[in-house]
Design brief:
By secondary structure, this protein is of the alpha/beta class. It is built from 18 helices and 16 strands.
Length: 510
Amino acid sequence: MNQIENKNIILTTLNSRFSHSSLSLRYLFANLKELKDEAKILEFVINSQNQTIAEEILAYKPKIVAISTYIWNATDVEEIVKYIKLISPSTIVALGGPEVSYLPHRVDFNMADYFMFGEGEVSVYNLCKNILGGIRPKDKIIQAKPVEFDKIELPYDYYTDFDIKNRHIYIESSRGCPFTCEFCLSSIDSSMRYLPTDVFINEIDKLWNRGARNYKFIDRTFNLKISYAKAILEYFLAKDEDYFLHFEVIPDNFPLELRELLKQFKAGSLQLEVGIQTLNLDVAKTINRNLKMEKIKDNLSFLSNETNAHMHIDLIVGLPGETIESFRENLDLLYTLSNGEIQIGILKKLSGTTLSRHDEVYGMVYNPNPPYDILKNNQIDFSLMQDMKRFARFWDIVYNSGNFIKTSKLLFKDGKVFDNFFDFSKWIYKRSESTFKISLDRVAEYLFEYLGQMYDEELIVKTILDDVMTVEGRKIPPFLKRYKKYEKEFIQIELNKANRRQILRKDNEE
């Protein structure tokens, strides 16, 4: 058995997926100065065995364990902290991250020794230095001031070669958000801080030279400062190799100079997360969100029709003052404005936001446990809110997955996107009794069964086949093979697949 080297400091978290990596841990490590040799980053994934995680952490015999805590890992962190303190009471546990930086804590973290509020690059170093030097701060809550973003050490050298090959590489050119949307923690830091352009481009370049080709920018408003956005886009446009970029953008700021650059990106290289949230001007005003509707419509049309960008467009269910009728209008309109994915989210009340000021007026009731999603309000009762949560899940499976693009259009006849999909989501939930672990073949069969009430069988079969067989390597759904009268179509599909494989083999041989 290999001997594990003892480390005084463990920086750890649980990511939501294996393909994700923690930028925050790498920032903390980069700024530990002379303590770096005494520290180690350990990353885990939610839904793992928490006792095993505690075992792996304590195997290094750390004096300090700092855990980055988020809404998706909060309950796991609670359990891991308890295990660490029960097994090794002398180990100091410090929690940081957005889930612990604001009160009230709605998960029981009381067994932790310290809570690091705010940006931790300086405060975590100071805490570790003091504890290792024999000084225990008296206050359990350590409130950090915003760091000087252009003066801290950057974290990108601490992505490993394994990370670069197997995980998303998260990067940021700025911190802060100038907008004041009440549901979002980013609105708390309204000042914008940027790295010098040449410094940031140099960091990207170092990652590129190490083989990084998958970049997820976590800037809240990538296209706010156009000159900065241009410099980054121009850097990647000069590259001949394939890559993937993800940006969060505001929907109303795409001037001509930015448009000309975006049009040059080829398909599959650019993904834009576009925050809409609501198209109801009164609701937007209630939550301090500024909507410029004409600009939004024009820019969504441009992105859909003149670029190859893949879009994720956000709509939220349950906003204060938003009725189900208003949400219906939002979805129906947004479907006509864009061909991108429409991400239907459920409102969450995060500690630190000002959403609670609406609770009494709109009867807002939230889940007391993570993810703190809304349960009901004066406009949408609990039963309907449950329907909408299932609606959002089935929307992802059918529409956002891209697996049923043509078949979805059969569902959305007469432009009644919301009404028709709502009826379908109610039907499929009753039929499947589940919203998870439904295979592609099973979804196709449910669509076939449901649409059979409205359309000619041959049209449905051909439409579903067109969708399912778009992806190379897929097989004809088993339920369709029961319909012998379509055997000719099935044989032709298999012949086409064989021809494609033969062409591919020849290309490879040449």
